[in-house]
Amino acid sequence: MRSLKSLISQSADLRVFSLGLIWSVLGTVAVRLTPMITTILISHWFGIAAVGTFGITYGTMLSASFLASSGVNLMATRNVAAYAAKDPVTAGRLAGMALLLAGGCAVTLGLLIFLFSEAIAVRLLRQPELAFYLRVISPIIVVTALNNTQIAILSGLQQFKTIARLNTIMGCLMIAAVPVGLYFYGLTGAFAGLGTAYLAGGLIAAPATTGALRQKGIPLAFRGALSQWPMITGYAIPALLASLLFEPVNWICTTIVVGNPDGLQQVGLYFIAMQLETLLLFAPQIVVQVVIPMLSTGFGEADRRRVLNILGMSIGTNIAIAIGFVAVMMLFGDWFLILFKLDPAQHWPIFMVVVFSSAVIAGALPLGQIPVSSGYMWTGLCITGGWASTFIIGTWLLQEHGALGLVIARAIAWSLQTLVYIGFTRFAIGRTCGALTAQPA
Tens digits of per-residue pLDDT, 391-432? Predict the structure, then answer.
């Protein structure tokens, strides 16, 4: 019989996991739905080629903002969770360092995109009309990156209720501003509405973040923040390099396709397919947000049983969600295509591949957090590098097939990465937590 202490620990983990999942789902709905709503409106009002224009520009904005912040965000979430109780001063410096680095990187990337928008549009994308939209989204990169970093700090504090409230506010702002801007000023208005929503959301998130830190007894500190440089080399740099491989890869692959004949329309189809993937992975990605700090705590305590329990809860939840969504899409997928003014008979193969690859991704997502949570950041970088190489090479070989080639290459890359994650998870748990010892009765 397991000890009472073990049972209480598992019960507490289940409670944190369940409440975090519920609050995160409630708070993220509107934020995730906004690109889909915008895509539907663009497809009806302006056509699929305009969806391609929006998709390339929006993807550039997301890639740049994630590139600026994702490395430090992973570092902040993992290490704020690890140090919040045992060393609040260090946790405060880590939070300050994350904000400084994310802001600096975002300003640099936004300025580069603004200055070289013509070269990017003409030479890389081979679509000169995109230069104007690249200039429009360059300042949005900064506010998006800082907003993401504040959410990462709150995630490390396991403030899921606060995150839910902030995401609800952000989602309402986006749903109100983006379609209105699109209606009156086209794609320019849509991006302006998006930027306004992110700016307002970031300003609202700032006092919520400082308040949550203060409540935990953590002093947010910018002076001396860079003294935590080992966290940069041990976590942020490999995570940043992973984001260099992971986040912009989707953009690189669409760039390969967009220069071909009918390229904007094919990218538009792919962007719509990615809205379906976003819908299918909506809840599984929220599960991952909840378990990152929990796994970090489990690995930090070298508690093998706790790590396995958390993985079991998250993978089981994601598989159940995936099965449900696959069943729904097989029954009602035609309606989704009709919603975007697509022909089910012609375009269903693209979306069938996306549905099944999304199910694979859902099961792999919790395993993908093992390198971060266990401290094997450089190994995680190598795994991500393999995924990126597979996706890019596959897209290059299949580029003549347009959107279908993109989704097939993506599915192959994720399937191979899942197999690697399974093997690495066994290694990381055995190496970090050791053998599972019997608990006293």
Answer: 999 999 999 999 999 999 999 999 999 999 988 888 888 877
The predicted structure's pLDDT at residue 238: 62
Please give the Cα distance from 225 to 220 (Å, whole number): 9
Backbone angles phi, psi at 30, to 5 degrees: -65, -40
| Token reading at 361 | 């991704």
DSSP string, 375-428: T-HHHHHHHHHHHHHHHHHHHHHHGGGTHHHHHHHHHHHHHHHHHHHHHHHHHH
Query: What does the chain come to in residues?
Result: 441
pLDDT tens digits for 174-208? 888 888 888 888 889 999 998 999 999 899 999 99
Q: Quick check: is 269 in a domain?
A: yes
DSSP for 300-323, please give it: HTT-HHHHHHHHHHHHHHHHHHHH
Taking the C-alpha atoms of residue 257 and residue 251, their distance in angstroms, rounded to an integer, is 10
In a domain, 440, yes or no: no
Q: Residue 267 falls within a domain, yes or no?
A: yes
CA distance 221 to 228: 11
Alpha-carbon span 205 to 190, nearest angstrom:
22
Q: Per the structure, how many domains does the chain have?
A: 1
End-to-end CA distance of the chain: 5
Domain of residue 423 covers: 4-433
User: How far apart, in whole angstroms, are the C-alpha atoms of residue 232 and residue 238?
Assistant: 8
Question: Does residue 439 sit within a domain?
Answer: no
The one-letter amino acid code at 386 reads: G
Q: Which pair of tokens denotes residue 33?
A: 């739905």
CB atoms within 10 A of CB 282: 18
